[in-house]
Design goal:
The chain is α/β, with parallel strands linked by helices. It is built from eleven helices and twelve strands. It binds ligand PBG.
Length: 324
């Protein structure tokens, strides 16, 4: 069919037609809201590099989780800022650690929302790396036990799903085995399988105080130039027992999301990271673009690329827009 017989504009003529033939529908069901928990009471401190995001004590984490549940958001993912850091990141797997306390309280007071946890050491180690450091290098195999202990402590606190983001080799299998041995065979693992070494994490590292104190994360996070490697990483994680495969960041990696969607038959998640959030917020504050419209367009594009699940700091704003 060719012009003038075929005119694509016919089906764009009004909203009813557009609605009827829309291929991608962003839904609240797809969204996960990240939250930052700190020790203390009645704390809700704005995070400067992430407008409208806060460091919250557990009481306020619960409040926000309730609000998210009220908006029909299915899950939150909790990040913690411990009081103290040390070389082995012991705060990550402490029974009374900040994330463990937050999980317990949210599950107690707002059981209808799922609590997912980020399993990593970088917020808890004094060197800021995601694994343990032996003579200046990241010790992969030595880190696995600490990472699995972290995941187990989250499950024991009541987490509904764990999401390892450390990028150590073999960690998904190690976590699966540890959870299974401890009667948590029913807790799924959402693996940050294709996590790139990205400058888009900048605002998060301010927020989570998790910048590496020496070197960078290039020996464990993926090279942004690679695509086949993402498929290899995903395939490995599936062999080890991953239930959901994540790509991170999202917007600059839509091609990776789309490729993983085609080559992998598990649910695909995408992490719309802090830098993607901050740049829209900044441009919105400058009056250079309409932040709300751009955010919804971005989230739709991430879903169109193939993501079933989107972790995004826009979750609450998007939910309000989608519910209205
Ligand atoms: C921890 C972790 C990071 C993010 C999520 N989990 C930071 C990093 O890897 O440096 C980034 C999230 C974001 O930027 O929004 N490893």
């Amino acid at each position: 069919m060719q012009f003038p017989d075929y005119r694509p504009r016919r089906l764009r003529r009004n909203e009813a037609f557009r609605r009827m033939i829309r291929e991608t529908r962003l839904s609240v069901d797809n969204l996960i809201m990240p939250l930052f928990a700190v020790n203390g009471k009645n704390i809700k401190e704005p995070i400067p590099s992430m407008p409208d995001q806060y460091h919250m004590s557990v009481d306020n984490v619960v409040k926000t989780a309730r609000e998210a549940a009220g908006l029909n958001i299915p899950a939150v993912i909790v990040f913690g800022l411990p009081e103290k850091k040390d070389p082995l990141g012991t705060g990550a797997y402490a029974k009374d650690g900040i994330v463990q306390k937050a999980i317990q309280e949210v599950k107690n007071k707002c059981p209808e929302i799922m609590v997912i946890t980020d399993v990593c050491l970088c917020q808890y180690t004094d060197h800021g790396h995601c694994g343990m450091v032996e003579k200046g290098v990241i010790d992969n195999d030595g880190s696995l036990d600490l990472i699995a202990r972290t995941a187990l402590s989250h499950a024991e606190a009541g987490a509904d799903m764990v999401a390892p983001s450390d990028m150590m080799d073999g960690r998904v299998g190690f976590i699966r085995e540890t959870l299974d041995e401890n009667d948590f065979a029913n807790i799924p693992i959402m693996s940050y399988a294709a996590k790139y070494c990205s400058a888009f994490y900048g605002p998060f590292r301010d927020a989570a105080h998790s910048s590496p104190q020496f070197g960078d994360r290039r020996t464990y996070q993926m090279d942004p130039a690679n695509s086949m490697e993402a498929v290899r990483e995903a395939t490995l994680d599936i062999t080890e027992g991953a239930d959901i495969i994540m790509v991170k960041p999202a917007l600059p990696y839509l091609d990776i999301i789309s490729r993983i969607r085609e080559e992998i038959d598990l649910p695909v998640a995408a992490y719309n990271v802090s830098g993607e959030y901050a740049m829209i917020k900044a441009a919105d504050q400058m009056g250079w673009l309409n932040g709300k419209e751009v955010a919804l367009e971005m989230l739709t594009s991430i879903k169109r690329a193939g993501a079933d699940i989107i972790m995004t700091y826009f979750a609450m704003e998007a939910a309000r827009a989608l519910n209205s």
